[in-house]
Amino acid sequence: MRTVCVVTQSVYETDPRVRRKAEALAAAGYSVDVLALRGAGATRSFVLNGVNVQTLGLGKMRGSLARYAYEYAAFFLWVLVRVPVLMRRRRYVAIDVNTLPDFLIFAPVCARWMGARLILDMHEITPEFYMSKYGMTPTSRIVRALVFLEKISFDFADYVVTINEPIQELLESRGLAPSKSIVVMNAVDESRFTTAARETPGVPGAPGTFAMMYHGTLTPIYGLDIAIEALALAAPQIPQAELWILGSGTERQALADLAERRGIASRVKLIGHVNPSEIPAWLNRCDVGILPIRRDVFLDFAFPNKLPEFIVSGKAVLVSRLKAIRHYFSDDALAFCEPNDPSDLAAQMIRVYRDRELCNRLAARAREEYAPIRWDLMKQRYLDLVNGVAGIGEPAGQPKLARADQASR
Do 266 and 189 form a contact (C-beta atoms < 8 A)? Predict the structure, then answer.
């Protein structure tokens, strides 16, 4: 049996992109090992849906650059030692390394010398990530060093996977060879949603409630404070509208306080953590999705997992007009609003509330424009790459996907 190792400095159970790839490989007949961080309550090693997972109990307490450096170095050294030990027994045909950090691709260097091919899946664009998080400029010494590390990392890899075309184009402008890269989008496994229960006990909202829902981490980048400000502005014109916020995070209390100050606490439902298996039923119950993501040099390239989850659930989506999302979807598919602008988001809330048929049209068009990037196609693209590396066919790139403005013509 052919074997593949997947490396990710994240908690495997809660990393949907890595899990989709690993489980796709296992379903295709590969034996798959994952090296990852240990989640709360997890054991050192376990098997999940046919994937063998080994973990390092490092924790994830980032904040300062020094802490990032420590965690990156510790995980790098663990992989550097662990992979050659496994390689002697498992004889991997490929090692799929998932960023961040970019330089993690160098950790399995011994396995490469022993015959494995290296795939670098660039989840994030590191220079822009640090510019966003720490307010750095493109000309700063640290950012220039990160651009250098990024380039030597994708040069070292045998193949590079990116998560959308705008990021691929950005990396090509920094030296990535187009012949060695493919795009595998953050699409959603639709099988989770077609088998979901139709109702969830405890879902709030009286009959006639118009529910706008967000699900995910509660952090400032996702603009949930903007959503609350927008609902406060629009509230007199959308009397039955509520904002449901599913998830936990550092912003929970601040969001509750903001809703109280704006006089709409009864219409902002902070649900708290919801098990991933229950999300499809919540999606079925809401009326529209809402993703008021802030815009900056990093977030402009964001394509969140939550967007396709709304789309495959047949929901219209209120979403910030970000570069990566706009690349794939037209104004006929999503209710775009200007990022960081509560008044524009409020106008979109009023628009979809007053015209339920518009919601249906948006949802239907979004499904059409999503079809070329759905998971069945992305999964096969990824499997074709690994099969080629394993000697089953030839690894190849892919044609450019149609832009939203082209698709709408």
Answer: no
Count the alpha carbons within 13 Å of 282 in the hemisphere toward its beta carbon: 25
How many folded domains does the chain comprise?
A: 2
The CATH number for 365's domain is 3.40.50.2000
What tens digit of pLDDT does each residue of 368-409 get?
Answer: 999 999 999 999 999 999 999 888 866 555 444 444 444 443
Report angle CA 75, 76, 78 to the nearest 5 degrees. Answer: 65
Q: Residue 406: its pLDDT value, please?
A: 44
* DSSP annotation of 14: G
Using alpha carbons, select from 167, 169, 164 the residue that is nearest to residue 187.
164
Same domain, 355 and 271: yes
Q: Which residues span the domain enclosing 293?
A: 191-371
Question: Percentage of residues in the chain with pLDDT exceeding 90?
Answer: 76
The interaxial angle of helices 16-27 and 375-389, nearest 10 deg, is 60
Query: Do residues 93 and 206 share a domain?
Result: no
Residue 10: count of CB within 10 angstroms of its CB:
17
Evaluate whether 228 touches 195 at the Cβ level (below 8 Å): no
Look at the block and give the residue holding tokens 């050294």.
77
User: What separation in angstroms does the CA of 57 have from each of 11, 49, 97, 331?
Assistant: 10, 21, 19, 45
- Taking alpha carbons only, the member of 129, 67, 81 closest to residue 102 is 129
Question: How much is the pLDDT for 104?
Answer: 96
Q: Sheet holding 45-48: strands in order across?
A: 45-48, 51-56, 31-37, 3-11, 94-98, 117-122, 159-162, 181-183
The string of pLDDT tens digits covering residues 108-120 is 999 999 999 999 9
**Together in a domain, 178 and 198:** no
Question: Which three-class secondary structure state does DSSP give residue 265?
Answer: helix
- 10 Å CB burial of residue 256 (0-12, 13-18, 19+) is middle
Q: Does the global pTM surpass 0.90?
A: no
Neighbours of 275 (CB within 10 A): 6
